[in-house]
């Protein structure tokens, strides 16, 4: 793998030493949850995008074909609701006449809803964190309609694969004994929650596991006592929970302890939010979670980004890290394309090879999704040990042994 290039140089290029010659601004519309159950993530993404834009603008703008263009980001709230996201996208594409659109920064259901609408306006569209595999399937099913739509995060099967490989790998290594190999799922009733469950369950079944619980709950749900009562009777060896709402994760984790359910709790997404650990306290001890995208304590590259953000008063977390690298990658591709014209910008995305703090962006051009793996974007599984999250799987990313 080629040596990681300096991020700021990748964004701004060698021409920063010259006096910038300003031209028209590039207007970028951004749709994401600024209110509602996922607002903390949406706001963090907004901060990260704006941070990169401010870096670029401080040096006169992004250079395309010898001219400097400043970046003007226009943010609209989706509240994680598809109908609000579609309305926000229409406003940005018509009234604001943005040059390109990012949507949704977080919610898969919103991205799926606005894909068809955005395609009709002939503008380039990129999503942020959404991982639902349904997005990739839409691209594959109609490559002409979605030729100018690209994801900036992997597919949801990456999380399912990470959870499965961690549980099976730890079992094979003799570090975890699953007993009867029974597994249960508690997940939010969204595209994100359902798609993660949809991909994880067959992997476990093919390996001889039996599903003993399948509980879908509304977004933001907080009373899990009925679900846990049923699960105690079924006694799963592993309980997989999937939420984008941090409050749901806090409630479930606390109630698992309160009800005395003995299981290996494996969480998807919400523990990457610092407010989860602040809210749940010691009740998260020994739980597993993925994806561990940002570890500034043990990872020197992550530490460098944390300090860069901190210099501007931003306490960086996993959402900030993803947002920073996604937007930096977009800017780099605009530079290489020399334009925001959709077809040419899409050509640049198809040949992306961009190293950032969180990993290396290279695309699967069949579904417009970044590749995952040790050489690309890693999806690590962490365990909470003595109140601190440490990567325990895969071995190439591990900073601690599983307890």
UniProtKB/TrEMBL annotation:
Gene3D superfamilies: 3.40.50.2300. GO terms for biological process: amino acid transport. Residues 25-385 form the Leucine-binding protein domain. The keyword Cell division does not apply. Keywords: Amino-acid transport, Signal, Transport. The keyword NADP does not apply. It holds the Pfam family Peripla_BP_6. Residues 1-23 form the signal peptide. Belongs to the leucine-binding protein family. This is Amino acid/amide ABC transporter substrate-binding protein, HAAT family. It comes from Paracoccus solventivorans.
């Amino acid at each position: 793998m080629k040596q990681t290039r300096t991020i700021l140089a990748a964004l701004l290029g060698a021409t920063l030493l010259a006096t910038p010659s300003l031209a028209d601004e590039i207007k970028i519309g951004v749709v994401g949850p600024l209110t509602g159950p996922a607002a903390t993530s949406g706001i963090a993404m907004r901060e990260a995008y704006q941070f990169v834009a401010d870096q670029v603008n401080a040096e006169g703008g992004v250079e395309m074909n010898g001219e400097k263009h400043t970046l003007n980001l226009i943010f609209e709230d989706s509240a994680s609701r598809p109908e609000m996201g579609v309305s926000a996208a229409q406003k940005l594409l018509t009234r604001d006449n943005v040059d390109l659109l990012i949507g949704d920064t977080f919610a898969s259901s919103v991205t799926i809803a606005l894909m068809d609408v955005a395609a009709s306006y002939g503008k380039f569209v990129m999503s942020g964190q959404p991982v639902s595999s349904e997005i990739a399937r839409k691209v594959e099913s109609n490559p002409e309609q979605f030729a100018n739509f690209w994801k900036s995060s992997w597919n949801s099967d990456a999380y399912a694969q990470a959870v499965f490989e961690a549980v099976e790998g730890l079992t094979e290594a003799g570090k975890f004994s699953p007993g009867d190999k029974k597994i249960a799922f508690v997940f939010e009733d969204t595209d994100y929650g359902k798609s993660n469950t949809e991909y994880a369950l067959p992997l476990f079944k093919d390996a001889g596991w039996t599903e003993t619980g399948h509980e879908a709950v509304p977004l933001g749900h907080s009373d899990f006592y009925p679900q846990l009562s049923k699960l105690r009777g079924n006694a799963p060896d592993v309980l997989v929970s999937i939420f984008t709402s941090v409050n749901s994760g806090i409630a479930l984790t606390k109630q698992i302890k309160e009800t005395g359910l003995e299981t290996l709790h494996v969480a998807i997404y919400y523990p990457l939010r610092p407010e989860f650990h602040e809210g749940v306290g010691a009740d998260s001890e020994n739980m597993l979670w993925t994806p561990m995208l940002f570890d500034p304590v043990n990872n020197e590259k992550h530490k460098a980004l944390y300090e860069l953000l901190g210099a501007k008063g931003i306490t960086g977390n996993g959402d900030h890290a993803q947002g920073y690298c996604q937007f930096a990658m977009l800017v780099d591709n605009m530079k290489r394309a020399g334009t925001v014209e959709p077809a040419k910008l899409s050509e640049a995305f198809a040949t992306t090879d961009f190293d950032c703090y969180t990993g290396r962006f290279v695309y699967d051009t069949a579904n417009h999704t970044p590749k995952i793996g040790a050489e690309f974007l890693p999806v690590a599984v962490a365990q909470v040990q003595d109140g601190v999250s440490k990567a325990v799987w895969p071995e190439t990313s591990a900073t601690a042994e599983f307890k």
